[in-house]
Write a structure and sequence with these properties.
six-stranded antiparallel β-barrel, 2 domains, about 35% helix, Rossmann fold, 14 helices, single chain, alpha/beta, elongated, L-fucose Isomerase, Chain A, domain 2, about 450 residues, about 25% strand
């Protein structure tokens, strides 16, 4: 996955304590650049006049940065941020330092006023994507939002087969996605996955892994072998095609033509960090990339399934594809065959408890939106087949369901054990997308 490239620049004016401000800037940027998940490009000189701003812009353009941190270390000329914005056309974080103790009654930085100046100029000049931050440490949520943006825009998304039969709501306009996100979808036929090469040694190694991870007493040897073989085939496929995420038409052809469904394989490979979406859902796949960039190592696709309005909880469930490393460690972690006339071979276990969130990047009526909600997965007994978590959301479950159904959000969401609402909102502002807000009650 491509690292985000972020530029850094210091704006000052000599009528303020600019030398101290630049010293503080360098100290704080040194700490910022310790984050090795980002490629940082620090413009080494103070930017004081329009020519300095032009030179800084050239530096950022040469290094092909994805976003720029514009630091108002003191108050400064209004030209500077406008020139950088005009030349670079990248998302901007307008960062102002906290004011220093007064020196003889004189304000030393006036940095916040510089941020205000930049924000007003940019807004009135048509820029709606900037983010403002005041403090002595960088806004990590903005950095996270840029990581999410860069990840989805540069993702190599594969689709094997097509969307699941009848799931019209997860179909996409690929050129609209290209316009809104920047990624292209690469299509493959299911036979390309089925007919790959897997040696007996590779299959036996994965077979041993399957037997170690799961209780397989309900499966026969053919089914266990087919799951193991599919683990080999799918992992090679993703690697050889250089895919960041793969959406799979997992029924009905898989069980019919291969002999088992891909659910168990997906549970295993997702636990290893390979992103896989069910039922040919491209936007779920792209949402997975965003959630991974936000910090979740093993995001996965789930249905907002059973709900209980009276007791205020939902079951996030799917046929058995959740990463097996997210097992709660208490119930029996097994493989079952209840699905597809006994050919399902799904993973079956309860997911671990903990703080969580769900997200979906979703398109309807020509507009791309983000749905997001936070909550907590709580302990429950293993009462049914599939992989699932009992979740109590921040908002009442009826309000969550109303937001989903009355805005046409598709029936798949991406769950992770992290929470990142502010970064999500930043991403939406930067991309010009609507946030579907549960706080806005429908009824």
């Amino acid at each position: 996955m491509k690292k985000a490239k972020i530029g850094l620049v210091c704006l000052v004016r000599k009528t303020f304590d600019f030398e101290t401000a630049f010293k503080l800037y360098n100290e704080r940027i040194k700490e910022v650049m310790k984050d090795e998940t980002v490629e940082w490009f620090n413009y080494p000189s103070m930017v004081i006049d329009p020519l300095d701003a032009k030179n800084a812009s050239d530096f950022f353009l040469t290094n092909k940065v994805d976003a720029i941190v514009v630091v108002s270390a003191t108050f400064h000329l209004g030209h500077l941020a406008l020139i950088i914005n005009d030349q670079c056309r990248k998302p901007l974080l307008l960062w102002g330092f906290d004011e220093l103790p007064y020196d003889g009654g004189k304000i030393r930085l006036n940095a916040v006023c510089g941020v205000n100046l930049n924000a007003s100029n940019l807004y009135k000049g048509g820029n709606d994507s900037y983010i403002v931050h005041v403090g002595n440490e960088i806004d990590e949520d903005w950095v996270k939002a840029i990581k999410m943006k860069v990840a989805i825009e540069n993702s190599n998304v594969g689709l094997v087969g097509y969307r699941a039969d009848g799931f019209f709501n997860v179909g996409v306009d690929e050129l609209h996605l290209y316009k809104e996100i920047g990624c292209l979808i690469t299509h493959f036929e299911l036979d390309e996955l089925f007919t790959g090469e897997a040696t007996e040694e590779e299959i036996n190694k994965e077979k041993a892994n399957v037997l170690e991870i799961f209780d397989t007493k309900k499966l026969n040897d053919f089914q266990i072998t087919q799951v193991a073989k599919l683990v080999v085939l799918a992992s090679k496929f993703v690697k050889n095609k250089q895919l960041d995420v793969l959406a799979i038409r997992c029924w009905p052809e898989f069980a019919k033509n291969y002999g088992v469904s891909p659910c168990a394989m997906m549970s295993i490979l997702q636990s290893r960090g390979i992103l896989l979406a069910c039922e040919g859902d491209i936007e779920a796949a792209i949402s997975m990339v965003a959630v991974r960039a936000a910090g979740e190592n093993t995001p996965f696709m789930a249905d907002l399934s059973q709900v209980n309005y009276k007791e205020n909880f939902a079951l996030l469930w799917h046929d058995g594809v959740a990463p097996c490393n997210l097992w709660n460690g208490l119930c029996n972690r097994s493989l079952e065959t209840y699905f597809a006339g006994g050919k399902g071979v799904t993973a079956d276990f309860v997911l671990k408890a903990g703080k969580m969130s769900i997200l979906r990047i979703d398109t309807a009526r020509g507009k791309t939106r983000i749905f997001y909600e936070e909550g907590e997965a709580v302990d429950m007994d293993k009462e049914l087949s599939g992989t699932y978590a009992k979740v109590i959301f921040k908002h009442h479950i009826k309000d969550v369901i109303d937001e989903v159904v009355y805005t046409g959000v598709a029936h798949h969401v991406i769950m992770g054990y992290i929470q990142y609402e502010k970064a999500m909102r930043y991403l939406a502002r930067i991309k010009g997308w609507e946030v579907l807000d549960v706080d806005s009650k429908k009824f």
